[in-house]
Amino acid sequence: MTDPFARFAERVADAFATLGFPRMAANVVMALTVSEEGRLTSAQLSERLGISPAAVSGAIKYLTTLGMVVSSTVPGTRRHIYRLPDRPWYAASLVRPSVYSALADLVEREAVLLPESEAGARAHEMASFLAFLRDRMPTLLTEWEESRGRG
């Protein structure tokens, strides 16, 4: 019988990949999610997932940039250990409004350079939506934490 945690990780990683998330990154974040400790070394990830250390490195770089994984050094060694952030990555994504803000600002700045047109209207709509997300994310996180009894 298949390990239910491995099966869960595989199915969710597949769904993430189907939605456009890089497959290796999806596999790595899900391996960390289902590890009892919530932390693994590069060698452990490589072994568990059957992937090369280079694939682990690339996925970790991507996930670290997104704030979905935190890297630290194993005390007394040069080995790195990767763990999930203290606040789960899916909730942490709500507190990064700067991503939406920067993108909204960029799209708005560039959209004003476009001639009045349907394409320009779509660009302005995109900027407006990104600004909306930027403004709503902190409130959504508060609501999430309150719903979980953590607020």
From TrEMBL:
**Pfam families in UniProt:** MarR_2 (PF12802)
Claim: Ubl conjugation is one of the keywords in the record: no
Q: From which domain of life does this come?
A: Bacteria
For this protein, the record's InterPro entries field holds: ArsR-like_HTH, HTH-GbsR_regulator, HTH_MarR-typ, WH-like_DNA-bd_sf, WH_DNA-bd_sf
Q: Sorted alphabetically, which keywords does the UniProt record give?
A: DNA-binding, Transcription, Transcription regulation
Q: Which SUPFAM superfamilies match?
A: Winged helix' DNA-binding domain
The UniProt record lists the HTH marR-type domain at 19-79
Q: What is this protein called?
A: Transcriptional regulator
